[in-house]
From TrEMBL:
Domain Luciferase-like: from-to ranges: 9-231
Keyword Hydrolase (UniProt): no
Name by which UniProt lists this protein: TIGR03619 family F420-dependent LLM class oxidoreductase
InterPro entries referenced in this protein's UniProt entry, alphabetically: Lucif-like_OxRdtase_Rv2161c (IPR019921), Luciferase-like_dom (IPR011251), Luciferase-like_sf (IPR036661), SsuD_RutA_monooxygenase (IPR050172)
PANTHER family the record matches: ALKANESULFONATE MONOOXYGENASE (PTHR42847), ALKANESULFONATE MONOOXYGENASE-RELATED (PTHR42847:SF4)
Gene Ontology BP terms: alkanesulfonate catabolic process
The organism of origin for this protein: Mycolicibacterium peregrinum (Mycobacterium peregrinum)
EC id: 1.-.-.-
Amino acid sequence: MKYTLSVAMGPLEHLTGLARTAEEVGFDSIALPDSLFYMEKQAADYPYTPDGSRMWNADTPWVDPLIAAASMGAATSTLRFYTNVMKLGSRNPLLLARQVGSVANLTNNRFGFGVGIGWAPEEFEWCGVPFAKRGARVDEMIEVLKLVLGGGMVEFHGEFYDFERLQMSPAPSEPVPFYVGGHTPVALKRAARVGDGWTSAMMTCAQLGETVTALNKLRAEYGRAGEPFEFQAVCIDKFDLDGHRELAAAGITDNIVIPWMLEGLGFDAPLEKKQDSLKRFADTYIHSGWQD
């Protein structure tokens, strides 16, 4: 099982230092969250809390995850990065293709594209994109992104996007993996059909195990059972070594963690305390030999 560090909702000036330390102590990746803006009034419930409220406020710091990946990639050499997840629905696929391809090239293929639709109508409407038909639009966006990132002269003629022959150079020298987020049946089908992996929001180990089983069944139905596939998880109830063993046994391949939050330090803890927390976590889990 891999270990990924989430850097959600922390000060932006900590990012480079955390990336260097994460690489030094043996983390595989960094997961980068996405938020465009904070609307004072929300038209829809946030889907990953019991009461629909957001876990952040207007002053919570965010950074564009693609810019963050390029910045942190320049400070590291082996650490990978992936968006967790970027909300595609309010964005343009050709602009995104240029950005994603740039990050993949600048990091020497150390980037994976975690994608979702987006839950907030405001992020769509205020960016000039209708909230209606968002799922179908994102499906087409993924087609466009993969086509353009694959390199060469391409064209596309769909329901939502239409363009004649074009080429973006340089194309990434390796395919950019796509990790699909979401918990709904439609999202799971999307992950099984077009994804190189699935990424969760906050779930229990039991819920994760059920989802892994469902995804493997869907992948078999789509004829993809033999292809590599990542199961990236944020687990909310398994934190010790036995719990990590349970996650691995459930099929989780990538455990997304925030070590300083597990120690009660908070999102805005000093950088040095976060770095110390990373070292303790690595000694306890990454280098403990439990997977040998």
